[in-house]
Amino acid sequence: MSDNKAAPSIPRDKENDHTQTMAEQRQAFVKQYTQSELNHVGHYSLSPEQTAGNIENFIGVAQVPIGLAGPVKVNGEHAKGDFYVPLATTEGTLVASYNRGMRVLGAAGGVKVTVVDDVMQRAPVFIFEDARQAHAFGNWISAQFDDIKSQAETTTSVGKLRNIEQYAAARMLYLRFNFTTGDAAGQNMVGKATFAACEWIKANYPGAGLQRYNLSGAMDTDKKHSQLNTLHSRGKRVIAEATISSEILESKLGVSAQMLFKMRQISNMGSFMAGSINNGSHSANGITAMFIACGQDAANVAESSAALSFVDVDEQGNFYIAITLPSLIVATYGGGTALATQKECLEMMDCFGEGKAKKLAEIIGATVLAGELSLSAAVLAGDWVTSHDALGRNR
């Protein structure tokens, strides 16, 4: 193709694009214009029709290896018992490390996990002529909450508007709409509901000075971490905790409770100096691996991997460890959860479908705790590098 010709458009059928015929046309297009064969990308067991609503211009699949870790013993309110966890990753040692942490936690009686909050946001901003008008508008919003709630909930049978936070700056008022969303992650759900509410507000506000509104003023921090989410939560706020005797730690991990406690104090200082949003070890590893395996929106790892690690040693020398995930965004219904391999991975943990999102969140919390414990011990015991050398290199 000469340089003076426009690049061709990707083949697409506006009426019926999610078909095997269109997938094959695009595969042939790739071969013709990039000289690349899609022998593996183009080999899959699902039907292209199943991907409608999940992807555009479908050409195939990315096959990420899935390893099995467990069992992890979960003492949750929704997840109770032993679970085997699918982890999709290309990082050698990852599954082995989580597996080791799960064994230790099981020997200590398991992980107590609690979902303490569950909320999803959309945060519009309303712009006025001056700050006093914006302030008056905020008072009206508080007085009209019931009507605003009713309008928002006309768009959804699941989403419920819980409250509206207000943040004033200059001549703007930022409103953070907080919804519960059942077993869906809910970003699109709350976006539609908030739009309906904002249109009603625009049509009914009797005060002066309203110039316009934007559906998102960025205070929802969609797919971006924020301190606001750490404090107020986004998705599910999950706390996983366990108490482990020093004898178990020494026999299975080669470290003592005191060693782990002192290491956490040192790591806290390093995290503080680095300005880190996460004082734990590597929560993103387990969360990402489970997200990919289980059909979650992988970009939500940006928020979901935020973590607060805390440890203590009691008078008997037992080691207490807890991880708080303030913005874990998961779904067991909708999105990519019903795709072929993703559904199988969710079903492995009995986490597919309605009524299972908090159960999945608890299993993820327990998995993250296992990874925190295992990596911390590996760094202390000196087998962090050697394990990667043994398991993490392609030979």
TrEMBL record:
UniProt keyword annotation of NADP present: yes
Keyword tags: NADP, Oxidoreductase
Q: What class of enzyme is it?
A: oxidoreductase
MF terms in GO: hydroxymethylglutaryl-CoA reductase (NADPH) activity
Map out region (Disordered) in residue numbers.
Answer: 1-20
EC identifiers of the protein: 1.1.1.34
Which CDD domains does the annotation name?
Answer: HMG-CoA_reductase_classI
Q: Which branch of life, at top level?
A: Bacteria
GO terms under biological process: coenzyme A metabolic process; isoprenoid biosynthetic process
Q: Tell me one Pfam family matched here.
A: HMG-CoA_red
Task: Report the sequence similarity comment from the record.
Answer: Belongs to the HMG-CoA reductase family.
Show the PANTHER family listed in the entry. Answer: 3-HYDROXY-3-METHYLGLUTARYL-COENZYME A REDUCTASE
Report what the protein is called.
hydroxymethylglutaryl-CoA reductase (NADPH)
Starting at the broadest rank, the lineage of the source organism is: Bacteria, Pseudomonadati, Pseudomonadota, Gammaproteobacteria, Alteromonadales
